[in-house]
Task: structure prediction
Amino acid sequence: MAKFANIADPWMVLVFLVFGLIGLKQFINVTNTEITSFGDIWTLAKTQIWKGGEPLPGQVKFTFWHVTFFAWFCNMAMHVGMSDLSVFRFAKRSWYAVASGAGMYVGHFMAWLCASILYAYQLHLDPTDTNVLPGPLAYRAAGLTGLLCVIIAGWTTANPTIYRAGLAFQAVAPKWSRFTVTLITGAIATIAGMFPAIAMKLLGFVAFYGMLLMPMGAVIFVDFWLIKKFGLQSNYAQISKKRFNLAAGLTWFITLGACWWLVWTGRIEIYFVSLPGWFFAAALYIVLSFLYQKKLKAN
Result:
């Protein structure tokens, strides 16, 4: 996988950039805009590309803050929490994590901007065509090269997620091989992705499962990076030979209950609740760990 990434990543970055340049050129042509300076491009972007508008029926209007919170949580889950902890445990140097940060600047900043240009151009040509289909968008912009890039990009993004999910399933069924659990996990995810009802509701689905898993992400982060600084034991369930860490479990359920109540009562949107919820879960886990570990030591 690492050897393949060394070959595919530079190529995919260039294709992502080409998406944006082609989309920009298409906008210039269709609007007959004369570009003589960067200011002309900025004006085109504000008036034709990212001009905003009313949301689709039943959908929430995304603002700058929706995008910021959503992007923050995507990166938090993937690159501060379980995903990078699973992959980078094999790294020989700590600074190798710079690769993750650099990759996300390209993948979650430049690529998102370029993709939005392609979608904005689709809406400009036909405002009723609101389908978000990465394959056709990429194919119209860069032909087979664009389509191949989308397929490989999706595969390389899914790989570390399937890998960490396989590790989690293996912890539940330790007699199963890593190959078997990873294969089963990948098959389930692939089948689920074939249904438009799931694939086309990605934003809402990610927001929901993000809120659902966020407390445990905070627990893992605190347990790995911070818990020892408070004089507490990391990996306490394993060391104490307990099958259930009560501090982690209560943190998960209490935080999830509080966040669900905030969303259910309309006090905060589901897209925003995971950020304050994460810090609440982190603090709660430290407090509960003090009480839990102290009680077990006393016994």
